[in-house]
Automatic annotation (TrEMBL):
Family that this chain belongs to: Belongs to the glycosyl hydrolase 13 family.
Cross-referenced CDD domains: AmyAc_SI_OligoGlu_DGase
Source organism (scientific name): Haloarcula limicola
GO molecular function: alpha-amylase activity
Annotated protein name in UniProt: Alpha-glucosidase
UniProt lineage: Archaea, Methanobacteriati, Methanobacteriota, Stenosarchaea group, Halobacteria
Residue stretches making up the Glycosyl hydrolase family 13 catalytic domain: 27-430
GO biological process terms held by the UniProt record: oligosaccharide catabolic process
Length: 571
């Protein structure tokens, strides 16, 4: 990264800087990234072979989704051994080589930390279900006879959050799949073992953690019934629970604070005020993922219903977070991840303006305040895949939901629900990385574990490398732009046209000892040409980047093509 001088006149002091603020993160879902041995599953040797590609993009950090031992009921988020590499991905020696090769390219490695729950195959759970005195309270058990759950809490994947275990003759809590029992963080021994696991990985040299659903660790005393009308029944009793701050502070004080690492928490139902407490000066984490902008296309706030989305709502959400964390805390900026469908298929136009809308959406995320995250394939403009059968799907959440719908009287066949399931399934993010316009997109020489998106012959790295107008090369320009303009990292944000229904215009401004650096971002989010008058004063302006062939250096009145993005420097 660029070395920055200490700023004055509204700039940023050295003690407010951090390498993770100035970094761009590239997220890799290893099962779908690169297969080296032809078994149809991505692996660590395949990833190592593709590191030069990630480095060439300009990324500073790799976030690697779970590669730990797992029965793969939830694609690695059901961990059976925190300190072993799953055979599917390779060996610990492969992982050691991966870490060495990442560091050799001046990049850093962030691992997934999944400690709200384990797999039922984990040794802790096996001992707990047998009533081993040392482990019987490692999970959340409630007595019962199998006739009814202890309360009405719902699993995020559908159905009751409780499953009756015949061996223990009791119910265990699982806020996600039945194979993912929740750990009992009330138990000090659980916290001790988790902290030792965190330290074990940090001692091996990794550079931080992405923490899965980390604000779910603390459950309300007595496990009271939840609001039956809420989107996630019971969530008011297990999201941001009574001891969550205590648990995370202890994790920070006892382990994390001893290392120069990056931490980002995935936090459902997170507000700006809560984010300040988690990521502020005295907070235990560096940044947090919220989900408010990922729900814009929900109909009536229902995840499995598709609705029209509104740009003014995106502006309101973005401005609330940009301004809310400007003085305390830090944003994590993203469109896509392993749980989100492809953004071009949601907020862009994958048919008529795939390239243009992919570039526009990338411009937006890489010109905001916060640490940007790019999910594998996003830099190509990858799109959702058609899912014509439940048999083709691997997402346990989508499969469960599809089966539940088909058990009602409202739907007879999968074709009746195909549009919704295909649009929302997490499998859209998990189709193989599209490397080449050849069989299986160059991902594997075998049969891929999940279907390849059939548009790989049009959307792939090989063709994009040779095309100066590709989404990939535009992303490289975006990362160069962010790296060379300090205002895009530390500058103030101001929305200039909050009420415009189609065009988003904002500035990023940073005062330095040498003067004021100010950038203007102009984005037409839809498929019609738009002309806007920009309420901004300047002496000179220069166009730094556009996803169309432009040379217009005057941003006073701008006519924008469909999905056009422009970035100006103002003086």
């Amino acid at each position: 990264m660029t070395t920055y001088e200490t700023r004055t006149n509204g700039g940023v002091a050295d003690d407010e800087r951090a390498w993770w603020k100035e970094a761009v993160v590239y997220q890799i879902y290893p099962r779908s990234f690169a297969d080296s041995d032809g078994d149809g599953f991505g692996d660590l040797p395949g990833l190592i072979n593709r590191l030069d590609y990630v480095s060439s993009l300009g990324a500073d950090v790799i976030w690697l989704n779970p590669i730990y031992d797992s029965p793969q009921r939830d694609n690695g988020y059901d961990i059976s051994d925190y300190q072993s590499i799953d055979d599917e991905y390779g060996t610990m020696d492969d992982w050691e080589e991966l870490l060495s090769e990442i560091h050799a390219r001046d990049m850093k490695l962030v691992m997934d930390l999944v400690v709200n729950h384990t797999s039922v195959d984990h040794e802790w759970f096996q001992k707990s279900r047998r009533g081993d005195p040392e482990y019987e309270d490692y999970y959340i058990w409630r007595e019962g006879d199998g006739d009814g759950p202890p309360n009405n809490w719902q699993s995020f994947f559908g159905g009751s959050a409780w499953t009756y275990d015949e061996e223990r003759e009791a119910y265990y809590l699982h806020l996600y799949d039945t194979s993912q029992p929740d750990l009992n963080w009330e138990n000090e021994a659980v916290r001790r073992d988790v902290f030792e696991t965190i330290e074990w990985w940090l001692e091996k040299g990794i550079d931080g953690f992405r923490m899965d659903v980390i604000n779910l660790l603390s459950k309300a005393d007595g496990l009271p019934d939840g609001d039956p009308d809420s989107e996630w029944v019971g969530s008011e009793h297990f999201i941001d629970g009574p001891r969550i701050t205590e648990y995370l502070d202890a994790m920070d004080e006892q382990v994390l604070s001893n290392y120069d690492v990056m931490t980002v928490g995935e936090m459902p139902q997170l507000s700006v005020e809560q984010a300040k407490s988690y990521t502020g000066t005295d907070g235990p984490l560096d940044m947090a993922f919220h989900f408010q902008h990922t729900k814009l296309d929900y109909a009536e706030n229902q995840r499995w219903a598709i609705g029209e989305w509104d740009l003014e709502e995106l502006k309101e959400i973005t401005s609330r977070w940009q301004n809310g964390l400007a003085e305390e805390g830090w944003n994590a900026i993203y469109w896509e991840n392993h749980d989100q469908p492809r953004v071009v298929s949601r907020y862009g136009d994958p048919v008529n303006y795939r390239r243009e809308s992919a570039k526009l959406l990338g411009t937006f995320s890489l010109t905001l305040s916060g640490t940007p995250y790019i999910y594998q394939g996003q830099e190509l403009g990858m799109t959702n895949s058609p899912w014509t059968s439940i048999a083709d799907m691997r997402d346990v959440d989508a499969i469960n939901h599809a089966k539940a719908l088909l058990e009602t009287d409202d739907y007879d066949e999968y074709t009746d629900i195909q549009d919704t399931i295909s649009y929302r399934s997490r499998d859209n993010a998990r189709t193989p990385m599209q490397w080449e316009p050849s069989e299986n997109a160059g991902f594997t020489e075998g049969d891929p574990w999940i279907q390849v998106n059939p548009n790989y012959d049009e959307v792939n790295v090989g063709d994009a490398e040779d095309d100066p107008d590709s989404v990939l090369n535009y992303y490289r320009d975006l990362l160069d732009l962010r790296d060379s303009h300090d205002a895009l990292v530390y500058g103030d944000y101001c929305d200039l046209l909050p009420d415009h229904e189609s065009v988003y215009v904002y500035t990023r401004t940073l005062g330095t000892a040498e003067g004021t650096e100010r950038l203007l971002v102009v984005l037409n989010f839809f498929g019609d040409e738009e002309t806007v008058e920009v309420p901004v004063k300047f002496e000179t302006a220069s166009l730094l980047l556009s996803n169309y062939d432009r040379d217009d250096d005057d941003p006073t009145t701008v006519t924008l093509a469909p999905y056009e993005a422009r970035v100006y420097e103002l003086r």
